[in-house]
Design a protein that fits this description.
heterodimer; A: alpha/beta; Transcription Regulator spoIIAA; Arc Repressor Mutant, subunit A; nine-stranded mixed sheet; 16 helices; B: alpha+beta; Rossmann fold; Elongation Factor Tu (Ef-tu), domain 3; Alpha-Beta Plaits; eight-stranded antiparallel sheet; binds guanosine-5'-diphosphate; binds iron/sulfur cluster; binds magnesium ion
């Protein structure tokens, strides 16, 4: 019997400077705490179950490249020791291309990292200034080259569009410049300037909020959607396959760890604010505050903040929501296999409305977003959101 | 017992904030009606809202005992009148229960619009007026100027005017002595058939409607059976008494006295202000003069913010209605706002107060449509006139022969510096200038006639802002006049939005239409398709904008496997959509309607 695949996410909540648009769990100016944090990660790992066969590890942040190769190596070895079954296919680490915090490329390589996700964001100086990224375009090029030289064969870059002041031509030029680096994988995200508390993972600093308030009116959704379309064309022409809403890959270079999320496979998340999923009906997450995390982990307990049990409705919804992120869409027979109904019937109204608006298409066994639908994915998914359980909608 | 010759019935009239309530407090204090230690300020304004807004909404009647300089003890009945133009009719009924009125004028402000309006009411009833210049303790007090104004505008001789400070008590005894000396005792014919004027009433859950009465003739005993002449309602008295200011039961009231009658009746409509109370058998044959049915002038749709609050709103309206005869309501429904009520009020302040009481006392969140007046519409080839208080119900332009609207006569008192801007304001609101008098070299009283419909949309706020707060306003209803009025509809994706229909003068239609369309364009979120927004008169489109289709809405990033957060965001989005109102296939957030309804540029 083939073992159940399992995945490990390691959150590293340190950044030298916190970006004004940032929506991740991170703290600035605490990089001195990385040794203590690494110990805490090992403490947590020791008390977490290690089910299935460990296939991928992903260091996300924050800025995981603030950790030394040795620190990363300790986590990877601890994971290998903790899991009875290990068949690692991919070990990714997110890195920032700044000279002042130059990653320990060879150390990371030696530690077992196989894939780098480089936060280039843009190769246009004015964009980097607008975003106050703290690195320049040439530093980004340099970082990419150093990573390659250190032997990383699988490098992904992140790019941001929808930046105020970035025209369609600017974006094209930036994309083409990025392609010249020869990345194996490209992720493109629209700049999202969450303004309302609903949308925050953590409350931004007041200065950051002011900055967002200034930037938002200068954003143009029409332009951003044109930029997205252009991305699809340019990357397709360069041989990258669009396989997920924001992700493009050369053949066989799809992100395996992220794909596990979309396929709703089980993962264990360690570190401050990290999320875990048991592959069935439970999601849980750790405390977000760095100090609270450290203290809890050091007492030898899982620093859990909360957990949520997913009922059948929510699981079915997640299957749709995560499945539709994949450009190939979802398989109706697979859905029937898990939930007993054809999604065409179960969500008849939502499917009809979104098909009518040209956002969703059904082709034999496959349901997927159309190219308009990919731009309006949230609008489509809302049509599938289950009714809240009775009681929670009661007023006051 | 105090003999009728030593009874005095009086009230205090003043422009708002000139010190009426404060003076009433001092009068109660000086006459030991209320122990100084228990005194809180503005005792007579017992409703929370009255205290907060500093206005008297309900009349009160308090009996105080005063040991005058002549060695006798007098019973003085202070009848506190409501203090706002919406309640002019109530004020005039309260004054009818008196023989005298203290006219309070602020020494720093001088005569204001409602000073004049109230004095004229008092003079029309032949009351003895005791002029008092208040707030003389203030450094900016200018009693000389006010004396001049009183002399010039109201022909009040300087020697008659008393100077006082209701704050520190200066002159308060003198005011009481003046009441005793100058105000005549009430005529008292205890043997004539009973006739008592109802000058206010309130609903008490235990005693039913309690009428506040002044006996014009006859005697009222605590076991009498009584009848209200205008409404025909009859009842046995449950309790008879007077206020000090708490109710004090008594066995009888005689002609000239003021007190209350608990009737056990269940609806305030049976006991209306201005009606005459008499004995159920062998009573008076003629009503006391001046009774009027309350006349609602301002109308608005009131809707619960959340549809499921409709039953609560209905109960709340039923309860308020018990206690407020000037307020009427009936159910209506709107595509945009759901189920609610069309309500009629005596005026804008009355509307505001009622809405606030509903929200506070009954804990409801409400949306009110733009206030409207009642139009009279002559339909082609039909004899009867339609009465329309909801613009959405106006027939199409092709069917209308003529629309008439209510007009009011307004007086605006202002420092001369603001004559220009206020003149302009009044004329853009279709005001017709009548004349202007100088109160003193620096202040004038301007008279306009204008459509009430123009006045109720933020005219008062504009008046205040264009005069740096100095101008004051009073108005009274003068009748219906035909006007070149049109119904302006707003269409979203071709569907009319009933709650946003307006009746406007043809000359303002374009401006109002454009303002509405622009505002909606700003407020309606993009949809999956293009949405035209139009303003139209009948089938004639006068303004148009288009909301372009939504192009992008993605939650791009996967936050390290935080799927829960994504789902929560989508749930929020769905909830938001469910709260939206649907016009055809267009989803419009309630806030958009609210913002349009609150648009304050008079569109
Ligand atoms: N300095 C001073 N202030 C006064 C005097 N009389 C009233 N006030 C103040 O003027 C304001 C309005 O008084 P109020 O009695 O509520 O006026 P009303 O609206 O006529 O009932 C309040 O803040 C009072 O405290 C006075 O004689 N002197
Ligand atoms: S580098 Fe990334 S994680 Fe760090 S602050 Fe900037 S956006 Fe946030
Ligand atoms: Mg008052």
């Amino acid at each position: 019997m083939t073992p159940v695949p399992h995945h490990l996410y390691v959150h590293v909540p340190f950044c030298r400077l916190v970006c004004a648009y940032c929506d991740f769990v991170t703290v600035g100016g605490r990089a001195d705490d990385t040794p203590r944090y690494t110990d805490a990660l090992l403490d947590e790992l020791a008390v977490r179950p290690a089910p299935g066969e460990l296939r991928t590890v992903y260091f996300g942040g924050g800025t995981p490249s603030l950790l030394s190769g040795v620190q990363v190596g300790r986590v990877i070895s601890a994971a290998r020791e903790r899991w009875p079954d290990v068949a690692l296919e991919e070990v990714t680490l997110e890195a920032n291309p700044s000279q002042r915090e130059a990653p320990d490329w060879s150390g990371l390589r030696a530690a077992g990292v196989t894939r780098i996700s480089l936060g280039v964001q843009s190769l246009r100086e004015t964009d980097l200034v607008a975003l106050a990224r703290g690195h320049s375009a040439s530093e980004a090029r340099g970082a990419f080259a150093s990573a390659r030289e250190s032997g990383f064969e699988n490098i992904s870059i992140d790019l941001i569009y929808g930046i105020p002041g970035q025209s369609l031509a600017d974006w094209r030029a930036g994309l083409e410049a990025a392609l010249e680096l020869g990345p194996d994988h490209v992720s493109c995200y629209a700049l999202q300037l969450a303004l309302s508390p609903d949308e925050w993972a953590a409350p931004p600093r007041p200065g950051a909020l002011r900055w967002r308030n200034r930037m938002v009116p200068r954003q143009d959704d029409e332009l951003a959607s044109d930029q997205y379309r252009l991305t699809e064309d340019v990357l397709a022409a360069a041989g990258y396959r669009h396989y997920e809403l924001s992700s493009w890959a050369l053949p066989d270079r799809e992100a395996r760890h992220n794909s596990a999320y979309w396929a709703r496979r089980a993962y264990t998340g360690i570190g401050a604010g990290a999320h875990s999923y048991d592959g069935a009906a439970e999601r849980s997450w750790n405390v977000r505050d760095l100090d609270a995390y450290l203290l809890a982990a050091e007492t030898g307990e899982r620093p859990i903040a909360d957990r949520e049990v997913l009922d059948e409705q929510i699981r079915a919804f997640e299957a749709i929501a995560l499945g539709l992120r994949r450009v190939d869409g979802i398989s109706r027979t697979a859905f029937v296999g898990e939930f007993g109904h054809d999604p065409m019937e179960r969500y008849a109204a939502g499917v009809a409305a979104t098909v009518r608006n040209g956002l969703l298409e059904v082709e034999g066994d496959v349901i997927r977003l159309t190219s308009n639908g990919r731009l309006l994915a949230s609008e489509v998914l809302v049509a599938f959101v289950p009714e809240p359980p009775t009681g929670s909608a009661a007023r006051r | 017992m105090i003999p009728p010759e030593r009874i005095r019935n009086f009230s205090i009239v003043a422009h708002i904030d000139h010190g009426k309530s404060t003076l009433a407090d001092r009068l109660l204090e000086v006459t030991h009606t209320i122990d100084k230690r228990l005194m809180q300020s503005q005792v007579l304004d017992s409703m929370e809202l009255e205290r907060e807004k500093g206005i008297t909404i309900k009349a009160r009647a308090v009996r105080v005992h005063f040991d005058a300089a002549d060695g006798h003890t007098y019973a003085l009945n202070l009848i506190d009148t409501p203090g706002h133009v919406d309640f002019t009719y109530e004020v005039s009924r309260s004054l009818q229960a008196c023989e005298g009125a203290i006219l309070v004028v602020d020494a720093t402000q001088g005569i204001e619009a409602q000073t004049l309006a109230n004095v004229h009411l008092a003079m029309a009833q032949n009351l003895t007026i005791i002029p008092v210049i208040n707030k003389i303790d203030l450094p900016s007090a200018d009693p000389e100027m006010v004396l001049d104004e009183l002399e010039e505008t109201l022909a009040i001789p300087r020697q008659e005017v008393l100077l006082a400070s209701a704050k520190d008590g200066t002159g308060v005894r003198e005011i009481l002595e003046a009441i005793v000396e100058r105000v005549p005792p009430p005529a008292h014919d205890g043997r004539a058939p009973l006739a008592a004027l109802v000058f206010d009433s309130h609903y008490d859950p235990y005693k039913g409607v309690v009428a506040y009465v002044r006996l014009a003739a006859g005697t009222l005993r605590d076991h009498d059976r009584i009848r209200f002449m205008a409404t025909g309602a009859e009842s046995d008295i449950l309790e008879l008494g007077y206020f000090r200011p708490q109710p004090v039961p008594t066995t009888r009231l005689v002609a000239g006295e003021v007190g209350y009658v608990a009737t056990g009746l269940k609806s305030i409509r049976e006991v209306q202000v201005g009606d005459t109370l008499t004995s159920a058998d062998g009573g008076a044959t003629e009503q006391l003069p001046g009774y009027q049915e309350p006349l609602p002038l301002v109308f608005a749709g009131i809707y619960p913010m959340r549809g499921d609050d409709y039953p609560e709103l209905r109960d709340a309206l039923d309860k308020l209605h018990l206690n407020d005869a000037g307020f009427v309501y009936e159910p209506e429904s709107s595509v945009a706002l759901g189920f609610g009520f069309r309500c009629g009020f005596l005026g804008l302040l009355h509307m505001e107060i009622t809405q606030e009481r509903l929200e506070r006392e009954f804990d409801l969140d409400l949306i009110a449509s733009a206030p409207s007046v009642e139009y009279r519409v002559k339909v082609l080839h039909k004899a009867d006139e339609l009465v329309i208080d909801n613009p959405a119900q106006m027939p199409g332009p092709g069917e209308i022969e003529q629309i008439s609207e209510p007009w009011v006569s307004t007086q605006v008192i202002t420092p001369t510096d603001y004559i220009g801007p206020l003149m302009e304001l009044a004329t853009t609101r279709r005001g017709e200038f009548q004349n202007m008098e100088y109160l003193d070299p620096r202040r004038v009283n301007m008279h306009f006639e204008m459509p009430l419909g123009e006045l109720i949309i933020d005219f008062y706020d504009q008046l205040k802002s264009r005069s740096s707060g100095y101008a004051s306003l009073d108005y009274s209803y003068i009748g219906y006049r035909p006007g070149d009025l049109v119904k302006l509809d707003v269409l979203v994706a071709g569907e009319p939005v009933d709650a946003l229909s307006l009746i406007v003068h043809r000359s303002n239609a374009y401006r109002s239409g454009k303002a509405l369309v622009d505002k909606l364009k700003e407020l309606i979120p993009r949809q999956m398709f293009e949405v035209p927004i139009q303003a139209a008169i009948g089938s004639h489109i006068i303004s148009r904008e288009t909301i372009r289709a939504m192009r992008k809405n993605v939650l791009a990033k996967c936050y390290g496997g935080d799927i829960t957060r994504k789902r929560k965001l989508l749930e929020k989005q769905k909830e938001g959509k469910q709260r939206m109102k649907r016009i055809g296939s267009v989803e419009i957030p309630q806030e958009a309607f609210l913002a349009v309804l609150r648009m304050n540029d008079g569109a």
